[in-house]
Amino acid sequence: MIERNMVKLNNRKYVKLFLYAVLLLSGFDVLMIIGCLTLSFQYKIMMLAAGIVLLCGFLIALSAIRAIEFEISREIISIKCYHPFQKFWQGTLIEFPAVTLQGFSITGSMLMLSINKEEGGPADISVYLQGITRGQLKKLRNSLEQIIKYS
Predict the structure, then answer these.
(1) Side-chain half-sphere of 119: how many Cα atoms within 13 Å?
(2) Starting from the edge strand earliest in sequence, which strands make up the sheet with 122-128, in order?
(3) Which stretches are transmembrane (predicted)?
(4) What pTM did the predictor assign?
């Protein structure tokens, strides 16, 4: 068996940038709403409604963001997904032996893994890889190909 190098990928930079941008835009939006409430002008109601809709959109975007950590170390593949505002890690953890990996495909930013479960039959795992760079995707693809080749 060939010895594998440890591969760790994450989207922390993307998540940080996204959070800063959304929080900054939300702050400007709240200032716009406050301005609409305190000032009097012709299209005040329309601006107030637009500000509230934008704020709701920003809150939905904040609730949907997920941080991802992908790690291949020796014989185990683990995938962690969690919300960046969680103080303690309580996200999804997918962990399985590398030898059970049967195949994979990366389409856009979606990773599909096909593994052979011990309880019988195959299982498919899909992970949305938002914020993973092209270089990281290439590294991930090479590592997974190496695992399949030498398993």
Answers:
(1) 2
(2) 101-107, 110-116, 122-128
(3) 20-41, 47-68
(4) 0.74
**pLDDT tens, position by position, 73-100:** 778 889 888 888 776 666 678 888 888 8
Domain 7-11+68-150 sits in CATH 1.10.10.10: no
> Is pLDDT at 7 greater than 70 in this prediction?
yes
Q: What angle do CA 23, 26, 31 make, to 5 degrees?
A: 130
Residue spans per domain, the chain: 7-11+68-150, 14-64
Helices (H), 39-88: 44-64
Quote the CA–CA distance of 42 and 47 in Å, as a whole number. Answer: 10
